[in-house]
């Protein structure tokens, strides 16, 4: 199948304004007749639904949570980037664009990233106008911090709760449109398939999760804003309900899946403590600004961290990467932690953790405070006391969260951290207009294969979700809908709705009738284990080939031995979960195939066969400078299509943090 | 931190659906690690129930890191359990001892009807927000963010109010099932900011009217809401909302 990214011609910095100047428009009278379905109400979905409602389209929005305010965007801690240059430190749209392309290890599409950087400033304006309470300076102006090793301070934040505040802003805009009757909200609903009529997406089948009924909904267009699929690994920083189902159904209806194996492993998460573990919690990346990461120099060390003398500690990031030290990008920091633990230097009961130590920062800040007070004679103990207060002001809520989970006081004992799955750069392949390879079907935010290439920089996920929803889709959707003004709303009595509903219903009944012995959860855990061990931070061909076979076997076992209690016509969270895990199993196989075919290391994706003599990631631009766009052909059968990546402006170089 | 394992008796509210009558059922769980979260202990129990052929307990949860506001259990008579400034999902089993009996019920409020077991319908909160918990600014209308300086103290207070996660613990903790803390947090967040000024009066009047319509009770200043709020939202917000309401009421009558 031929596919076209539809990148506008012209200079990089004129593409978007030129596109907007020539795109087709829909007049207000016609907008009222056009219906749009938005699935998912996180940053991308809520901002899209609200904006399209304001424009006059008839919008239906769906989320599986009990309220749109609970989408997992809410958990983002650190911040949101924008090229405002409020700090007068030389930032610009070009620099944000450049950093994002480079940070993505040259696997993102330049034109999309440039547009993202261009609209970044309008996002901050919009959010402030909605009443999002960003951090401010004493003069009343907005505060910024640096984040993820950038050289400029371009990150806007609201303490450690930036995602929450941005989502509540978009949610309040959405609720306003609901009150005005422009958006109809369906909470506790899960999309279970796309309805196709004449090769266009024309609606969805959704399950009402309260009473189990299947519902048919028509839309002239369908927008999937359903987030990432990190839960394929079972343990991740995602919410328990985060899933791939909507995107996967779209994939099976013809939407290509882009770079499925591009997963971001975040280096600073609280390690797992036992087999019962249900999720992992992130500790914001900002902690690496002040914490030093180390492991004992001796293997199988059993002393407590504070009893290990300085000369017996290996600050391995500072040793390996003297230029960036503890601030190397996420992918580098994660791999280095895994390497130390694999070699037997890990700490804690599971030996799968490294220390993140604030001792030196506490003393350093304490001495600065003493200096401010003119007290140069004071003891080190006083400095520690003052320093702890400074650290508390900066990271208090994170330290508190750490202590609640682990029962350990990180002011006294170094934190134990380990990398965890956090974000998926892969997702549904979309063109410049955010349209998938299915006409009328769009993907926004983390659900698309997105602007982050092979590695996402800190504070840019929130930016992308809101860019897509507030400032991209309102233009690009019109370009499609302008040709649909003569399409009257299609009745859900149309045979395509009935057929799709029957297929969904049959699948549910098949699942319910297996009546096997093993729980959904146990299958999910086993899938996660295969994925983490063989398609995680480091991968090789042999492991990936094994994983594909293991997943195919797991799939057979699932469909013959899963046990789902309860019935179809009631609330049944186990049934909901079973459907999601069944889709994760299929996705897992594709991720391994994608990882296998990409025999290069890039960004978060480390192929052991492709490394430098020093053991660093080796990208292979000659053979792999493309987006892998997988086309579904049937069970365990995909065709790889390649979208070549051309870099007009940011010429690829090997990243080095030495 | 020393870990230990414990055996527990759980008494959990079971209710098939909104129409059915509910009852407390007893369950035994064994070898629960002190390092588990409270909801992981429920996962263990549910796996046990499924394997035994019973219906697992339905409960709301999603992020499991204390921010989405979806988890909602009334544990041993307290909303979100024994720890202060904490959500159910962040409660860990260290809070309990071997041999303990733990009673778990859903949020109890007329405005939050039970859907199943421990799951309640909190859509009343969404409708209160629909009545006015926003600033009417369409996408694309915003001025440059720094063209409107805001006193840091007001911005900080606004942020503190905005950190409400909408879980409903305030309602569950209140003898009157009052939603004053939730509503006042949103009113305060927007009343403290200059962007919120144009709709300041209609907002508080409409939100309070909707709150009453949803059959939440009145506030009798017991402050149980603040004590049980996982985010420590202050009752000072209720005082602020009362002032806003009075002054809006006066000027709308004029």
Task: Provide the descriptors you would attach to this structure in a database record.
heterodimer, A: 658 residues, alpha/beta, Flavocytochrome C3, Chain A, domain 1, Methane Monooxygenase Hydroxylase, Chain G, domain 1, five-stranded parallel sheet, five-stranded antiparallel sheet, 17 helices, 23 strands, 38% helix, globular, B: 254 residues, alpha+beta, Ubiquitin-like (UB roll), Fumarate Reductase Iron-sulfur Protein, Chain B, domain 2, 2 domains, five-stranded mixed sheet, two-stranded antiparallel sheet, 8 helices, elongated
Report on the architecture of this protein.
The complex is a heterodimer of chains A (658) and B (254). Chain A has 658 residues and is of the alpha/beta class. Among the domains of chain A are: 265-421, Flavocytochrome C3, Chain A, domain 1 (Alpha-Beta Complex); 501-623, Fumarate reductase/succinate dehydrogenase flavoprotein-like, C-terminal domain (Methane Monooxygenase Hydroxylase, Chain G, domain 1, Up-down Bundle). Chain A has 17 helices and 23 strands. In chain A, α3 links the parallel β1 and β2. The model of chain A has no long low-confidence stretch (mean pLDDT 95). Chain B folds into 2 domains: 5-116, Ubiquitin-like (UB roll), CATH 3.10.20; 123-253, Alpha-helical ferredoxin (Fumarate Reductase Iron-sulfur Protein, Chain B, domain 2). In chain B, 34% of the residues lie in helices and 14% in strands. Chain B has helices at residues 38-51, 123-130, 152-162, 169-173, 180-191, 200-213, 224-228, 236-253; strands at 5-14, 23-33, 74-75, 78-79, 101-105, 114-116, 119-120. In chain B, strands 2-1-5-3-4 form a 5-stranded mixed beta sheet.
